[in-house]
C-alpha cells in the first residue's frame, strides 16, 4: 500500500513497522518511551514487539483506558514520569493506542521540554482514519473535550491492519462513522464503496482512502482557518449529543454512534439550508440508520444540547457554525443556522430514525 | 526608537501602546483578556489603561505573583476561567507582567483550544530584554523550571520604559545580568557601554540593543538546535545555583544574581576549555563582582548542583554541555567540560569573588 506524504512526515501502511525499526536502529534517540493504555499494552504491545524483532529497548508508560482519563492529571503524571526517567529533549515517544493515547501522548510530547519527537501507531479504526492524521493533539478539561492542546505533527504514523483484529465490534463501528463522513464530504464514489463494505472487515485500501481524504484537507488548511472545518460535518450536533450521553446515559454512545446521529441531523440541515437534495437526505438517513443502532434524543435535553453547541470550540463570536453538504461528496462550512432549525433537525432524527 | 521585526510579529518600543490601540479598534477579537499578577495589576494596569485612553473592554485574569506560581495548577485555573468566560478561538490574551506572566500566559494561550492569539507587554527589565523575545513559553513542574512549554510566537511585543519606574532595584539588577550576557556573547562594544551605564537608569536604546541581539540569535535558530544555545551562557551553573538557593536560602538569589555567578564560573570554564584570555576572565570577574552582591556557593552543595545540571533540559544524551566564550563578544556552544572543571570553576568563584 502506498505511503502517504503528509506535512513533513510519512504515513505508512502495513509495513510491519519496518521504517520504525530503521529509525530505532539509527540510534539517534537518547531514550524511547512507549505510551499505551492498559488495553493496548495487553493487546497491541506484544504485536508491536514482535514486529520489531522482540525489541525491548524502551520504557513503557501505561495509563488507564478511556476518554475520562484523557485529562490534565494524567498528563502531569506522564510529564513527571519523563522527568523521573531524566528524559531529555532527544528522546522519542511512541504512542501505541487509540485516539485517547495519540491525542494525549501527542500533547504531552509537544509540550515536554517544549517538544520532543513522537510517533503515532493508532490501534483503533477511529484513530487510524482520523485521530492520528492532521496534527491535532489534545486533552479534556472539566469534561469539555479537547479544550487544551496543540497543533503538532508526529515524526511518522504507522497504520497496521494487524492491530484491528482485537478491536471490539462497537469500536469498529465507531471509527466507521468517520469513514462514512469522509465519503459524504469529499468523495461520492468512496461513499458508495463503503455502503457495499462490512465495517467488521475493513480493508487497508479503504483506510488508505480515508486517510488520503483527511490528509488532503488538513494539508491545505492545517490550522483550521477554513476548509478543514468540513471535517466537522456531523460533529456540531454529534459532539453535543455525545457529551450529553456521556453525562446521562447508563451505556453512553460511542463517538461514532453520536456522529452518526449528528450526520443525519446535519444532513437535514444541509437540505434545509444548503443544496442537499431530498433524495440524498433520504438516502443518507436510510443508509446510516441501517448500520447504527437507534437512539432517542430526549426532547427535554434540547436546551442543554444547544448550550453545549454554543460552547463548542469551533465557534466564533458566539455563532454556532455548521459544515453542511451541498451534495453527497461536497461540503461547505461556516454556515449559520437558525436555532429552531437545529431543534427541528433533532426532531427529524427522532421521527425518522425509529424504524 | 525603531521597531524590531521578529518572526511574523513586531517588537515595539515606547509607542505608548499606539499599535495595540489600533489592533483593539479593528475589533476582530471576540474577547480581550488581560493577564497580570497582583503586583502588575496594581502597578501596571493603570498605566496600561491610561495609555489606551481609559480602555476597559477587557476582562482581567489575575494570579499570585512569583515563580512558585508559574505552575500547572495556575494554568488549569486560567484555562477554566477562559472556559467560564466562554472564550472562543478568536479571543486575545494580553500578558501584562514580568517573565512569569509572559511565560505562563504564553503557555496557556498557546494551548487553549489549541492556540489563541496573545500579546506580550513585559513590565520588568528581565522580561523586556529576555523573556518576551524568542517564543519560548513555559511553566515549572515539581519546581523544575520550564519543564513544560511550547515554542509559540506572540502577535506583538510592546516594550515601554514607563513600566520600569515601579520595578524594585533588585529586579532591575536581575534583568541587567541578561544585558551583560548579551554583550559578552555577541557585542564587545555594547558590553563596554553597559559598564559605563547605571542599571537603575537603563535607556531604551540599551534595551533595544539587547532585544536586537537576542532576536538575531533566535531568528537564526528558533528551535534551539544550535546557535541559540549561546544565550545559555552563564545559565548552566547559574540555573543550578538558582534552584539550590531557592530551596535552601532564606533570602534566595534572583535569577540575574544567580546568572551573574554562573557567568563568572563559566568565564573561568571558557578560559580553561576555550580561548577566553586570562585578562578577559579577570576583567569579567572584576566588573560583575563590582555590580552584584557577594555569595558563597557552599562546598557541600557541589554534588547537588552537579545533579541539577545533569537534569537541565538543555542536555543531550546525559552530557552537560556548556556555552563558552571564545573572547568577549564571541560565544560557542555544545562544549563538554570535565566534572572536575565544573567544581573548580565554582571554587574559583568562591575564592575570587570575596573582595
Ligand atoms: N486528533 C484528532 O484529530 C482526533 C480525531 C478524532 C478523534 N480524536 C480523539 O480520539 C479519541 C477517541 O479515539 P478511540 O475511539 O480510538 O478511543 P480510545 O483510545 O479510547 O480507544 C477505544 C478503546 O479501545 C481500546 N483499544 C485500542 N486499541 C485496541 C486494540 N487494538 N485492541 C483492543 N482494544 C483496543 C482502548 O483501550 C479503549 O478502551 C477521542 O478522545 C477523540 O477526541 C482525535
Ligand atoms: N521565555 C523566555 O525566553 C525566558 C527568558 C528569561 C526568563 N524567563 C522567565 O522569566 C521569569 C522571570 O521573569 P521576571 O524576573 O520578570 O519575574 P516576575 O514576573 O516574577 O517579576 C518579578 C517581580 O516583579 C513584579 N513586577 C513585575 N513588573 C513590575 C512593575 N512594572 N512594577 C512593579 N513590580 C513589578 C512581579 O509581580 C514579581 O513580583 C522566570 O520564570 C524565567 O523562567 C523566560
Ligand atoms: Zn469525529
Ligand atoms: Zn536568564
TrEMBL record, chains A, B:
EC number(s) reported in the record = 4.2.3.4
What sequence ranges are listed for the domain 3-dehydroquinate synthase N-terminal? Answer: 63-172
An annotated GO cellular component: cytoplasm
Q: Show the InterPro entries listed in the entry.
A: Dehydroquinate_synthase, DHQ_synth_AroB, DHQ_synth_fam, DHQS/DOIS_N, DHQS_C
What is the required cofactor set for this protein?
Zn(2+); Co(2+); NAD(+)
Which regions form coiled coils?
A: none
Per UniProt, residues of the 3-dehydroquinate synthase C-terminal domain are 175-315
Instruction: Tell me the keywords, alphabetical order.
Output: Cobalt, Lyase, Metal-binding, NAD, Nucleotide-binding, Zinc
Q: Name one GO molecular function term.
A: metal ion binding
Organism domain of life: Bacteria
The GO biological-process annotations, alphabetized, read as: aromatic amino acid family biosynthetic process; chorismate biosynthetic process
Its biological purpose: Catalyzes the conversion of 3-deoxy-D-arabino-heptulosonate 7-phosphate (DAHP) to dehydroquinate (DHQ).
Q: Which PANTHER family match?
A: 3-DEHYDROQUINATE SYNTHASE (PTHR43622:SF1)
Q: What is this protein called?
A: 3-dehydroquinate synthase
Q: Which organism is this protein's natural source?
A: Pedobacter westerhofensis
